[in-house]
Amino acid sequence: MGNKIARTTQVSATEYYLHDLPSSYNLVLKEVLGRGRFLKSIQCKHDEGLVVVKVYFKRGDSIDLREYERRLVKIKDVFLSLEHPHVWPFQFWQETDKAAYLVRQYFYSNLHDRLSTRPFLSLVEKKWLAFQLLLAVKQCHEKDICHGDIKCENVLLTSWNWLYLADFASFKPTYIPYDDPSDFSFFFDTRGQRLCYLAPERFYEHGGETQVAQDAPLKPSMDIFAVGCVIAELFLEGQPLFELAQLLAYRRGQHDPSQHLEKIPDPGIRKMILHMIQLEPEARLSAEDYLQNYVGVVFPNYFSPFLHTLYCCWNPLPSDMRVATCQGIFQEILKKMMENKSGDEIGVDSPVTSNPMNASTVQETFANHKLNSSKDLIRNTVNSKDEIFYSISDALKKNRHPFLKKITMDDLGTLMSLYDSRSDTYGTPFLPVEGNMRCEGMVLIASMLCSCIRNIKLPHLRREAILLLRSCSLYIDDDDRLQRVLPYVVALLSDPTAIVRCAAMETLCDILPLVRDFPPSDAKIFPEYIFPMLSMLPEDTEESVRICYASNIAKLALTAYGFLIHSFQLSDVGVLNELNSQQISTTPASETPSHLQKANGNAQLQQLRKTIAEVVQELVMGPKQTPNVRRALLQDIGELCFFFGQRQSNDFLLPILPAFLNDRDEQLRSVFFEKIVYVCFFVGQRSVEEYLLPYIDQALSDQTEAVIVNALECLSTLCKSSFLRKRALLQMIECVYPLLCYPSQWVRRAVVTFIAASSECLGAVDSYAFIAPVIRSYLSRLPASIASEEGLLSCLKPPVTREVVYRIFEKTRNPEFMAKQRKMWYSSSPQSKDWESVDLFDKDAGELNSVECRAEQKQSVEGKKQIKSASKQPEVQGKYAEKDAKLRIPRNPRPNASNTVELRDPVYPEKLQFSGFMAPYVSGANSFIEPENIPLYSFSMDKRAATNPPVASESSLQMNSLGMGSLSVPWMDSMSKSFNLASSVPVPKLISGSFHVGTNPKQFYRVVHEPESRENDQISSAISKFQDLGVSSSSKSASVTSEDASSPADLVGEPSLSRTSVPDSGWKPRGVLVAHLQEHRSAVNDIATSSDHSFFVSASDDSTVKVWDSRKLEKDISFRSRLTYHLEGSRGMCTTMLRNSTQVVVGASDGVIHMFSIDHISRGLGNVVEKYSGIVDIKKKDVKEGALVSLLNYTADSLSGPMVMYSTQNCGIHLWDTRSDLDAWTLKANPEEGYVSSLVTSPCGNWFVSGSSRGVLTLWDLRFRVPVNSWQYPIICPIEKMCLCFLPPSVSVSTTMKPLIYVAAGCNEVSLWNAEGGSCHQVLRVANYENETDVSEFQWKLPSNKVNPKPNHRQNMSSKYRIEELNEPPPRLPGIRSLLPLPGGDLLTGGTDLKIRRWDYSSPERSYCICGPSLKGVGNDDFYELKTNTGVQFVQETKRRPLATKLTAKAVLAAAATDTAGCHRDSVQSLASVKLNQRLLISSSRDGAIKVWK
């Protein structure tokens, strides 16, 4: 082609480049790459991918291009025989009349572009590319082909650093004129920058006739010179070695490039480059000689044959197989790369020696891991994942935080001494990194993994690739970690597979602590890059990802803190290179926080802590928190405290601790008390005594032994560290010592350890003054030293059953007992302390075990006298012997009718009355006690509860044994709170743990805030409330009737009662409107209140469930709901709240039960809810039986978990265990009787009554799960609502034993039924103005119509199943829609006449209307007539003055719309009550309004 081509003229525009090319090539112009004068380079789209097209336009004289085409064919054919080529010739060419085209595959990157692209090439990568470039030239020269135009643009690179030499210039002239730069510019200066890579001998003198043929063949030495220039530019960070003028001067000997090469630090590289660019061509070596001579000097030994052969095997494999094979031979790769290091560098005494590995050995090793059995390889990849990473670094084996401070108990003392109060920090979190872990070759493996990680199809192989990157990161430098590996790891945080996201999270947290040196531009990598990318993980759909994030948040926090400290150091020093990783790691921890004194530094630290605090709060209290997530977060709570500092730990970590204990998960509570000791040291002594000790105190009564032991170990650690003051220590000893008789040896040993540590902390004198009198009753003898664990263990009395331990435990928490104990401690006569303690314990033990003793004695009076005389022996030895005997008695209580309560404590009857258990023993009702005389469907309590009377402070325990919490009883609130305050410290108390009797533990967790000064007031107010109920407070003549005793338990299973506690006796709402809540857009079908009355929820037809803060009902003018839960388009039919918890259960019209928890934070005195955090623990159950019709709490002593009974539209009745998420049992109602529209269950859980949509009421025996009685309501109509009837104390015991229920059905009436016989006792009728023809009284006189359970097959199917209702459903009769029972048989009702009435059972004439529309000209002058007919009592509401005109429903609605008192304007659907400063009535209506009355 020669100089003739140089005379061509300017050609057409680029739009016509492909105009002359045949359409069969299917090329589409995409981009113009180069506008050189000789060839135009364009990028085109082809069916097989992107291609580069070099275009030569023909102009002027015609030139024969066949010779150049022959050379292209030769080059292509020769290189086809290469097995693993580093050359890439032109693949296609085409000549047309106007142009010639050269086509090859497009490569994304060439060496020129790669040198200026992040991440910049590391030193070993540059050596690897130089090595491959020499290999490429060697392959060319071995085939007698010279390139002719080697430059950076013609060196192509793949993403995994495989090099190709392309664009062979067989058509360019070999020699060009020395004194005419036009030819150089035309052929070789494509960028116009005058860079020259040509050998000096390719320039000739232009004077006269030339002595050199321009088309003479190229020589290998010319390519070697160009290779030297490219390698020099590679190691000079893209700076060219020669420009044209410099090369010509160098040819004349007027330029020395060695000065420019001095910028290359490696002398071996400089020597090799200088040898390649010698002026004498003969002095230059061949490419093969350079490869051999500079092995070990420039090129590492493992480059050839090991690494090159490995890459040759990887090239043809897909990404998945590359990762799989890399995983299989990773250890061999690491071993080979570390071989050329000296013993000092790798941390051993002598250099590592190994057998040389040639190419065949490498291929054999690779083949052993390749596709002989690809499935086995992939399976081995999964099985051996741990061997890869954990066999590399001992540091990662031994410690979860290998390069960060791991907070242990041994280090806490030293750490506390480093605290800087001004900056609230504890020093730098980084630990030194060992220098012998550097292996530069790992960068090449990391680059290969990064190149294919996005194209891996199998998720487990993507995970393996991330783990391999984590392994490689141990051996590469900081810049490669941040610039090369980190972006790929962060990108995989959004991978669709959970295991990949987890692996990316773990790898991220393991890589970042390794970084010790980074440029100032990366100082804000955490706030601007890391944390935003992690923001979606707390709401990840997979729990495993959230657990992984929670377990690593402490690592992230400490690492971000270390980065922040280093950025301050960089700003102080000013020059990055002056700080290396060794200086950072050896900086004294006490000096590092001095940089945080700057205002900017403090602001950044506060912002960082705020960011981490938000993440922690989202994980702990967010909508997707689980016990496993919380447990993972607790594992590193010490590191989080280290990060937050003392002030932030108090301000942020302490308030969220109750959220951990509000969880039911036993393992979570166990881990909490295992790790809380770290929090104690960081928050300080005052916070421990005021906030954390009450938590530990309540953990001692937990049913899980691991929780108790961990709490005791925490106390022991605090004692050994002298962390507790004397007063706090004595208070904890008060709480702990009853556990000395715990049946588990594990717990007893933990108690002994704590007592011994306390003794050692107090000293010998105080130990015998304070500890010995308390524990003496539990020891057979006093040991020589209380501080000796072995001595205490050898002196312990035999253990007792767990029930007895909890009774003793609760007895010791009685304020009276604690007052006696403290009075004994601080008495002026120390010699009497021991004996007073013995007397005190005798009295307590006797009271606690009197029932057990009586149950095991015979019925004779002599036996009682023996017990009483034995308990009153004055001799100390006799007392000890009695205590030993009582503690050893096996607990097999059997009820005995003749047993009575022996009362030695003058206030003991009151205590029994408080707990609701006095009646079975003093009322003489043998039907409670005698097994053979127990009625089938009575209100009797569990036999186990009846034979084990409680102690005074056992209110919450006994309420739970009945299947209810003490907070479920409104009039028990103040008493139960005061009795549960076990410590005299006036700080928030946590009622946590599981008090239980027998086999029915009930767990509840609630923070109780009460001032100490109010305890006596609360007790006295509780006594006065019980006296108001008619309960005598005398000690001997207490006469409590059965209905009083059972009334607390009556809350169980009653639909409205289980949702809203039974209001106070004598409570008479006046109808004063307190609040009007109008957020629902449709009917509010049901209301449920929490056990502590702090909030209530409402379920509506508008597909929402709203949470309302009842504590602000009387305070806020603009009252709004706090939280809203959406039912996904279905209507909320019914709702209830599980007792002593914040869990809400909602039944929807689409047959789905929704259960969720309301997360809130309580602070200050009075347990005031400060913030509602959100709705958590969402659980859904699709019953697949149509709409949920009725829903209520069901709790019985024989059941361990919270149960929910519900009925469905398809006639199903189910009992759902909310813990196991399974149905305990399922019953089916008869379809001909209609679906079950209402349910009511007994307090003891032995029976329940169902009411159907066709007026059939059925009594079910739950012991055998069969219907035992069924009767038809006098009118065939739906049973709207049912509730239990709590009769007054004046009614005889025989009447109270009957299952009496109120039934709202029919037209404007409520009836009282005895479900045992199906007989009606009372009918309450509302005045019916629109239809004066009331139902005849005759139908109530008739005996109940028994429903035959056997179907009559002769009966017409249409009448049996009422098929006509499918065409036209029967209209609902106007009447009562909601019931709320009151003590003494009183009742609140609400219905379609928009009125709420209070019915008085004892004095029906005192019944009255609480609220309702005031009718014009009528007034609220209703009176209530009482009539009795054949045993049925009728209470009829009538007007004192007859109406002048007939009153219609439209007139009632018009009157309601103009009512000044604010009555309901539509049917009253639900009633509930809450007890705050005063009791309030809550009502909801069909128009979506909720009203609160007082």
How would you describe this structure to a colleague?
This protein is of the alpha+beta class and 1494 residues long. Helices cover 38% and strands 17% of the residues. The strands form 12 sheets. Strands 33-34-35-36-43-42 form a 6-stranded mixed β-sheet. The chain has a 5-stranded antiparallel β-sheet with strand order 1-2-3-6-5, with no helix packed on it. The protein has a 5-stranded antiparallel β-sheet with strand order 29-30-31-32-37, with no helix packed on it. It is elongated and about 140 Å long. The N terminus is likely disordered.
Q: Residue-averaged pLDDT, rounded?
A: 74
Strand percent estimate:
15-25%
Q: Which consecutive residue ranges, at least 5 long each, have pLDDT under 50?
A: 1-14, 342-356, 370-399, 574-597, 828-1060, 1341-1346, 1348-1355
Number of helices: 53
Shape: elongated
Which CATH top level class of the largest domain fits?
A: Mainly Beta
Strand order of the largest sheet: 33-34-35-36-43-42
Radius of gyration: 45 Å
Return the CATH topology of the largest domain: Methylamine Dehydrogenase, Chain H
CATH homologous superfamily name of the largest domain? YVTN repeat-like/Quinoprotein amine dehydrogenase
Structural class: alpha+beta
CATH architecture call of the largest domain: 7 Propeller
